[in-house]
Amino acid sequence: MEYCRTRSLTEYLGILNRRKALIFLWTAGMLLATWQILEEVPNTYESRAILIISERESKATDAMDSHFAAVRQEATGARILESIVDHHHLRGAKESTDSAINRLRQQIKIESKLPVLTLSYRHTDPRLAQSVLAEVVAGFDQANDAIRKQAAAEASWLDSQIAKMEGQFAKIGLSRVIPVSTPGAATDLKTARATLNAAMDSLSDKQYALQQEIAEQERQIAAQRGIVASAQSAPGAQDAAYGALLVRKTELEAQLMEYASQYTAKNVKVVQAKAQLAEISGQLAALEAKNQPGSAAVAPAIHELFTLERDLIRLRTDFEITAREIRRKTAALENLPRVDLAASDEKGMSEIETKGAYDRLISRYNSLVAQRDLVQKAGVLDDGGAPVIRISDPPNLPQDPAGPNRRLLKAIALAFALGTGLLIGGVVEARRLFFFQDHRDVVYFLETPLLVTIPETLTPIEKSLKSRYMLARTLGVVLLISAMPATVLTLKHFDLLKKVVPLFVR
Question: Given strand 109-113, what is the order of strands in its sheet?
């Protein structure tokens, strides 16, 4: 059997109702004491400053990451922070200099979101917070000269290395540095000559084929013109006029196709040809409307003649283009330098070694030039240019406290006081859980049904003693609870609370 009977929720609520006075008094006393302590927590003021990195500098972050790391280390270094600690007396009574420097370094917040740097520092004295941050910002402002000196030293070293490598280029017989990516820089002359000869042979075969096709096309056109002439010689003046107009229309259309590759649409020749073609088309339409005899026989022959002449113009154009390409290839072949192939074969190994040395040097050279370009692009070498780090907003004098959040602290104090009050009520009531309180405890522990209950009867003396005992206990509890805020008020009166609270909130 258990020594404590399990209680229901209703019984626990009854316990709270029975101890409500104790819980209320304890919560009120604890709340008054904690709120008095919270009033002594000093306000902290935050001073902020904004630094702007120059636009050219922010675009060259790859080249200047090392510079910013050095600047940040210098601005928050031990030398500057030690002078700030000594100047503003920020070191505690029993605190070493190194501990004060490390604490100050942690309190100075630097938020980097390029190109903006935000610095902030908190202290209970707003003027002191502004002064400390101003000295830190001055360290960043002085870093502009350090960045320029470091960049100048790096640029000087890069220039010396580039000049040294240009001298090595001269030693291997290169009059100038040719970038590796230059097209045709290392083309083999023998291969180039063989490629040009093969291309010219192919173009010559194409030119011969076009000559044969042009000759055959001209024979077909001559035969077709005979057919058209015989059709036009048929009786009837209208048929002859219709055939002549078709021939003229075909000639004009062929002429326009030839002009298209030579002139624009606004050229005088093109405009006149189009006007004549439109006029002839109108005359042909009029003749076809009258259904002139013989027009149906002449029209197919004229259309066939037009198709043959159009193909002839295309073939002649291809022939001219091929001839021009042959002339260009011939000129390129003649411009190639004439070299002694036998001598070049004998010096093959030396050329391979020279090319290998060239490839290694050019790779190193390009890397050095790229690094120098990044430094110059950053603009830190310009003495007359804008500073790399510019102060946009100097450290301000804060007017409103940045902390602590007193509403949150008071809410926590209320929860703490209520929790301790419930805890005290539970402790006082805990010992009663192991005694008989009512008929349910009798039934539970004796395991027998309860027949009747007799109320407690006290004599007048017992009632008097009990009332005195209750009064003394109540007064003792009230005095004990009142001692907490009274003690806090006493410490506050003698300014002892101001010395104790900073030790816990630092």
Answer: 109-113, 116-123, 45-53, 389-393
CA angle 380, 53, 143 (to 5 degrees): 60
Q: Is 141 helix (H, G, I), strand (E, B) or coil?
A: helix
Estimate the crossing angle of helix 20-39 against helix 9-18, to 10 degrees.
70
Coil, helix or strand for 404? coil
| End-to-end CA separation in angstroms for the chain | 54
CA 151 and chain centroid, separation:
26
pLDDT digits (tens, 9 = 90+) for 430-451: 877 777 777 777 777 777 787 7
CB 443 within 8 A of CB 5: no
Secondary structure string (H, E, C) spanning 247-282: HHHHHHHHHHHHHHCCCCCCCHHHHHHHHHHHHHHH
Q: Domain 45-166+380-393 falls in which CATH fold?
A: Alpha-Beta Plaits (3.30.70)
Low-confidence ranges of the chain (pLDDT < 70): 1-3, 54-71, 144, 146, 168-190, 231-240, 243, 261, 289-299, 336-358, 374-388, 493, 496-506
Report d(CA 171, CA 179) in Å as an integer.
17
Instruction: Give me the pLDDT at residue 498, please.
Output: 66
- Between the CA of residue 154 and those of 90, 361, 443, what are the distances in Å? 39, 20, 95
What are the boundaries of each domain within the chain? Answer: 9-41+404-505, 45-166+380-393, 235-293
Q: Which residues contact 88 (CB under 8 A, 6 or more apart)?
A: 128, 131, 132
- Residue 145, burial from CB neighbour count under 10 angstroms (0-12, 13-18, 19+): exposed
Give bridge partners of residue 44 from the DSSP assignment: 403
Long-range contacts of 193-198 (CB under 8 A, 24+ apart): 193/333, 193/336, 196/329, 196/332, 196/333, 196/336, 197/333
49 beta partners: 119
CB neighbour class for 486 (10 Å; exposed up to 12, middle 13-18, buried from 19): middle
Q: Is 117 helix (H, G, I), strand (E, B) or coil?
A: strand
> What whole-number distance in Å separates Cα of residue 126 and Cα of residue 189?
80
Angle at 301 between CA 297 and CA 307, to 5 degrees: 150
Question: Rounded distance, CA 461 to CA 473, Å?
Answer: 18
- Residue 442: its H or E element: helix 439-446
> How far apart, in whole angstroms, are the C-alpha atoms of residue 293 and residue 242?
10
Q: Are 53 and 392 in contact (CB under 8 A)?
A: no
The closest alpha carbon to 26, from 488, 478, 491, belongs to: 478
